Every structure is written in C-alpha cells, then in structure tokens.
Amino acid sequence: MIDSAYFINGPAVQLFEKNLASYLDSKYVIGCANGTDALQIALMSLQLKPGDEVIVPAFTFAATAAVVAILNLVPIFVDVELENFNIKIDQIESVITPRTKAIIPVHLFGQGVDMEPLMKIAKRHSLFVIEDNAQALGAKYYYSNGSSKYYGTIGDIGCTSFFPTKNLGCYGDGGAIFCQDKDLAQRIKMVTDHGQKVRYSHDIIGCNSRLDSIQAAILDVKLKYLTDYSKRRSEAAALYKELLANVEEITLPSHSSWSDHLYHQFTIRTKRREKLKKFLAERGISSMIYYPYPLNRQRAFSSIARMSHSLENSEILSKEVLSLPMHSELTPQIQEIVANGVKDFFQ
C-alpha cells in the first residue's frame, strides 16, 4: 500500500466497499474516517434544517446525540428497554412533533432494535431512519414473515464504526455508511469529500472524512473472518451464561427473538456494580461500565435536548451495567477465571 501511494480513497478502499456491500447485501457502501463522522454525514446528506428534531435513545454513547447537536438539530431522548438496552419503541410516538424529522435507533452491545414496528412508525410520520450499527455489524434482523436483513440496511441510512475494539475493527479509526438509494448514496459520497462530485467543483457543503487505504486493506482481510469472529463471541457468551447461571444477584444479557446477538459487549447487571468492579480489579480482571450516565444527565445536552416523560430504565441501567471481558480470542480458561471472580464476590 505504501509503495502504491494510494493512501486515501484508492483502489483498496473501493475494493473493501464492494466486498462489504456484498457481505451485507447493501447496494451502496461509502467509507469514511470514523463512526461518529458516519452519523454526521448521514444527517448532513438528508438536508435537515436547524431546529429539526431527531429522536435518539438516552442510553448510548454520546456521539449519537452529539452529531445531532453539532448540526444545530435538537436531540430528543427516549428511554430504552431493560432487557435488551435498545430504544423503547412504544415511547417514540409520544415525542413526535411537527419538527421531528428522523430517528436514530442504536443497535447496542451486539444485538439490534425490533425494526419492523419502528419502520412502521417512521413511515406513518414520514421520518428518516438512520441506524447506528457501530456495535452490531454482521447481525441480522428477522421479520415476522420469516425473511431477514442485515442491520444497517433496513433504514434509509446505516452507519458503522471500525474502531479497533469493534467486531470488525481496523488498526486505527475508520467508518462506513450504507444506503440503498442511488441518489442518496451519491450525495453521501459528496458530503464525505468536501461536497464535490467533480474535483474542485463543490455543489454542496461537505466535510473531509475519508477512509485510509491502509485501513481499508486491513479491513478487507478481516472481513473474511467476520462470520467466524461473531461465532466465537457467541460461543464465549454461551459459556459465560453457563458459568454464571446460578449467581442470583446478577442479570445476564438477554437475546431478543428478532435479532442475532454478536456480543460486542457481554453486559451483566447488578445493584452492587461498583463493589464488584473493584473486587475484580483487585484480582487483575478488567471490566468496563458502558455507560455510567444516561445522555439526559450529560451537561453537554442539558440546554439543547428535549426528552420523553420517563427515562427510568436508562437511569437504572447506568447504575447497574458492567461489561465483562469479551472478544473473539477469549479462551475457556480465561472465562473461568472471570466467572470465578464474579462468583467469589457474591458468595
């Protein structure tokens, strides 16, 4: 790649975009610099106006709402389900106003939102749907009629991240955007490259967010193993559930019937979260809190966001969630050490 000198948007990027599109059965894939940019570019391509409202879950990483605010749009927070951590669909319609233009469902921790009812709401109110699929790339959604689609290809636009810890991660930053409409795909491509379709001819306002060729080459190799990576994570999750099945003071992650679960994170819940985390750390066992504060508690959004009447579940989860070590290279021996640490704490 270095010898070729095609460092940005070269043939390696085009090849990876083509192969990822084939994997996901998506008509168009456009690479970009990172997952946060993917979300911002998606919103920019829809030509929303300042003051327009975008519905986002309150329990997710801040980037999902931050890109809304950056564009002078208004984040509208709704609650999530306790069982699967994903957006509470039956709360969406209660916050829709004439200014509401889009919904960003986040497929959190490796499994996806129930998209069939969400898409019906979006269609009924003429809303765009931008899927934040940074944590569930390769997971499928199963419709009530038995058909299926990959998450990220169901809404108007799908976005993902290739941050190194993601299920498909590069050796730095990277992201991608998916869509099924030719004109929209062209507009997204223009937004990623300063708003130009022809060099030095800028038809719209864009940004500079392109995928490095070296990262694309790495991702194209790793894409061949994505199905195997996902299988290994699922096997590791099954072993965790077996090892921790009898620990009464924790709630293990659930698996929704409509979605694959790729276990980007293996997230348990316990009311003794802080003490458990400290106990595990003293044994040299890492654990992480995703996320310690819901977005409605973040100062950055306090003066610009609006929220639904109840965000109770998001508040509960932020106090109880703890993610145990999870990746495709976990061995049963390591998992037993982790599980024994959890069990010893609760004895």
Describe the structure.
The protein is α/β, with parallel strands linked by helices. The protein has 2 domains: 11-223, Aspartate Aminotransferase, domain 2 (3-Layer(aba) Sandwich), CATH 3.40.640; 226-346, Aspartate Aminotransferase, domain 1 (Alpha-Beta Complex). Helices cover 34% and strands 16% of the residues. The protein has helices spanning 11-24, 35-45, 63-70, 115-124, 182-192, 213-223, 226-243, 273-282, 312-320, 332-346, and strands at 28-32, 53-57, 74-78, 100-103, 128-132, 140-142, 148-150, 157-161, 175-179, 196-198, 201-202, 266-269, 306-307, 321-324. The chain has an 8-stranded mixed sheet with strand order 1-9-8-5-4-2-3-13, sandwiched between helices. Strand 10 and strand 11 (201-202) form a beta hairpin. Helix 7 (226-243) runs parallel beside helix 10. The model has no long low-confidence stretch (mean pLDDT 97).
List the helices and strands and how they pair.
Blueprint: H1 11-24, E1 28-32, H2 35-45, E2 53-57, H3 63-70, E3 74-78, E4 100-103, H4 115-124, E5 128-132, E6 140-142, E7 148-150, E8 157-161, E9 175-179, H5 182-192, E10 196-198, E11 201-202, H6 213-223, H7 226-243, E12 266-269, H8 273-282, E13 306-307, H9 312-320, E14 321-324, H10 332-346
Parallel strand pairs: 2-3, 2-4, 3-13, 4-5, 5-8
Antiparallel strand pairs: 1-9, 6-7, 8-9, 10-11, 12-14
